[in-house]
Amino acid sequence: MQECFQIAINEAHGVTLLVQLLKSSDNFEIQELVTGVFWNLSSSEQVKPELLKRALESIVKYIIIPQSGWKGSQVRSDIASNIQCTTVFRNATGCLRYVGYVMWYFQFFTQSRFIFLSKNPG
Question: If residue 29 lies in a helix (H) or strand (E), which one and from where to where?
Answer without folding.
Answer: helix 28-41
